[in-house]
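ok trying again, last paste got cut off:
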Amino acid sequence: MSYYNTTNEKQPELCLAWKHNDSVDDDIKKIFTNNPNGLTAYEVYEKVRSIGYNHKESSVRRSCTDLFNGGYLILTDDKRLSSSGRPNKVYRKK
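nice, full thing came through this time. structure:
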């Protein structure tokens, strides 16, 4: 249940936001299970879109960070260039 309630939402909207984020997290976990060599957050976003999910890039990045903080993912020392040419660290399933 990793929803940062910065807009002070109340029920039932808050419960819907929790469920949505749990769904995003589950989708991201599946992607990492199928990619044992790891991915950057942007590569995860690209995979999410290619599969047909409609998750926002910010939601994918939030999920990667929360899964890392929760111990599901590790952050490697590897870096890959994003489409903008900037280096991104690679996450991998623990």
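cool. The mean pLDDT is 86. Strands lie at 73-81, 87-93.
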